[in-house]
Design brief:
- The protein is an alpha+beta fold and 85 residues long.
- The protein contains three helices and two strands; from the N terminus they run H-E-H-E-H.
- It has one domain.
- The longest helix is centred in the C-terminal third of the chain and has 18 residues.
- It is globular and about 35 Å long.
- The two termini are 25 Å apart.
- The relative contact order is 0.19.
Length: 85
């Protein structure tokens, strides 16, 4: 998926309220992200009836470029702890 496709989705998406998911939701973001607000990240909590975790990594919206190893290590631990895998 390209960046252009991401922006197209962002511009055309219309939220439709539905029953919360019955699975955990893990939200990852850069602590200095100026594109997605902390408030928007926390709103994901309303989309699950299960565990919710907001994990901030050092960096901006593209934190994954510099934090790849730490991100995957964190994700792996979370998946094991929640028995998703």
């Amino acid at each position: 998926m390209s960046l252009r496709a991401d922006f197209t989705l962002l511009e055309t998406y219309a939220y439709k309220h539905e029953k919360p998911l019955d699975c955990p939701i893990f939200v990852f973001s850069g602590s200095e992200d100026s594109i997605v607000s902390h408030k928007d990240l926390v709103e994901w909590r309303t989309q699950t009836s299960e565990e919710f975790l907001l994990q901030l990594f050092p960096g901006d919206h593209f934190f994954l470029h510099d934090m790849r190893s730490l991100f995957f290590q964190t994700l792996w631990v979370l998946l094991l702890e929640t028995k998703v895998i």
